[in-house]
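Q: You know discrete backbone vocabularies at least as well as I do. I have my own habits and do not want them to colour yours. No explanation is needed for now; the record alone will do.
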Amino acid sequence: MHHHGYLWTGPKERFDREALRRPPHPEPPPAGSRPELIQRYREVAAEFPISDLPPLETAHWLVKPRSLVGGTWEEAEEGAAWLGERLADHAPRLASQRDRDTTRLARLVNSAAGHLRSGGDVSYGFYLERPTFLSLAVVTCSPNRSHPRLGCPLT
């Protein structure tokens, strides 16, 4: 078991495009479906695996391009430390005073280490200055507990 880290920052309105943040249904629309439904399915099927947008389910980061992997670690504590470093990097820009509280951020990192040790995934999201959003995730790989059939993006 190992862990991969992912970071995304971007406009909140792009983050809110949820249709592009979920994988396409395993079955395409049946023959004779409305053309706009078929077109939408094709768009999502083509875009989801290559988009840098954070997926709605954290484990689905594993199907994204390997270039989006921000780090890989054997130990949960290393993944949590990466998360803590990214939080520290962005803390001055966090929109909420509560989110900038260093004690709270340290608790998030400690909690993340525990979740990762138990084979879970960790995903945090924060509003930054202006309408920008920060998404951080550390995903357990080989296997992922919630989606064991997802392969490692580095193989």
About this structure: The CA atoms of residues 23 and 48 lie 6 Å apart. Residues 102-117 form the longest helix (16 residues). The mean pLDDT is 94. The beta strands are 2-11, 71-73, 122-127, 132-141.
